[in-house]
Amino acid sequence: MPTHAPAAGGAPAARTLPHLPRAAANGLAFRRIADADMGFLSALYAATRAEEVAPLPWSDAQKAAFLDQQFQAQHAHYMEHYPDADWLIAERGGAPAGRLYLERWPSEIRVIDIALMPDVRGQGLGRAMMEDVISLAGAGGLGVGIHVEKNNPAMRLYERLGFTPREDKGVYWLMRRDAD
Fold this sequence. Notes:
- This protein has one domain: Gcn5-related N-acetyltransferase (GNAT) (Aminopeptidase, 3-Layer(aba) Sandwich).
- The two termini are 26 Å apart.
- Helix 2 packs across helix 3.
- The N terminus is likely disordered.
- It is of the alpha+beta class.
- Helix content is 36%, strand content 27%.
- Keywords: Acyltransferase, Transferase.
- It holds the Pfam family Acetyltransf_1.
- It comes from Oceaniradius stylonematis.
């Protein structure tokens, strides 16, 4: 597979893209993020937090500004703490549809983040991506780890895929699926 231009943040993208055949069979293609994707990624972040901010007594503009600020902080944190990660945009029909951020460690592949836009959720795409990550990890004898908010509806999917809570992190569970 080809390598791509430097990822956002200036880090070179020397590795090939991870092989994600189930996601591809479901119409997803992956590429590394670029600076031009920041608007989409901010909108994706906002879409994942829309229910949280809906009851706040703020104007739509205040909510949008808050969510963009939170996205910028999250993005900076990810880039600082996971400099060697695979920062991937999931595209469907040539348009951005989600993100998949992966870090490879000696004992596991850590799913830093996985998210899809609302219009493509519920179609098995997240499951396909996670099954691909599990296969990728399994090929190297690795487990898979992910932090999951305790009220995240995807928790049921992760449990069906063999993930179990390993550590209580307050609002998150650190979940892990050991290597087969």
